[in-house]
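fold-stage: in
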Amino acid sequence: MNTNFFNQIAQLDFTGVLQLNISKGIENSLIVSVLVLNDACGDKAKNLIPSITINATPQEFDEGFFQRITVPVQKVSGLLVDMAAFEKQMDEVKKQSAMEKDKTDKAKKEQETKDKKYKEAMAKADELEKEGKHRDAWMKVPDVTEYPEKAEEILKRKKSLSDKFAAPSLFGSMDETSQQLQPIIAENKYTEPDEEENSLEEETN
């Protein structure tokens, strides 16, 4: 007897595994449950999808079984496919999120290291300035190209230091001038009495 059963199964539009359970009911009836399985879907919610259960006589199954299960099978199969696709997308999102987090963490760590290096350099410059080593302090101030976001602060600090070692000290100039004048003052101090004495002697004579 040719029933075309498997040909009709093959014509059903589903993805995965079609599981049929057949048991005898009362009064010569049959209970057939159809369950669509899809291992590609890892969502546990798929376990909540009920099987398609039909209770009918053998003759009723022969006449309309496939008509009754075609639409439900397609819906369940499509739902499982969508769930599997969604799950795959979520995995990709998590993967991308993890990658972005790694990038963010790496950038944050690099910035922290950079900031620490900047603070240490500025602190060293302050220390050298207190010691009066203005030129050395100027050299310790970070370069603007390395910290463009702190350009204004760096340029201001460098100028403050360069002004101190580039321009001559007012007191230094006065001291130097004083030292230059001392021999002249001393010479005038000791020669003036001699000249007065000579002038007196000439007048006396």
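fold-stage: in (second)
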Amino acid sequence: MDQQHQDQITAILNDVDDMTLATQREDGFPQATTVTFVNDGLVLYFMTPEKAQKTSNIDKNNKVSLTVNRAYEKWDQIEGLSMAGIARFVNDPEEKEKAGGLMFKKFPHLASFIPAHDDNELAYIRIDPKVISVLDYTKGFGHAELVEV
């Protein structure tokens, strides 16, 4: 991946709060879910209840796809990402603290939404992208470039 693509991808990730995450359900159907995320460069993190459907899906198949899109008013402003990646549960205490710190820095109001209970009931999930499609309509309608990580 060249520096220009990396800078564009990182800028989009830094600017957007939510992604649509696709996992595979046990019955084989895909499940798309909107989740709030943070990133450390190209690595994405999100938190979710341990008993959520998406955590069960990831536990059985850690291959995920996702989209991240900047807000736009006109089609010639569309800029977004479509990624395929590998999700894994964060169990290392230092990485979990890092991910939580990134979440609270980006979303200071988060504390009021997390029930006062043991933090172990939340799953911290990391996504490492493998392939990224960079959608950039500022370069023309439907313009996309595939980038391998």
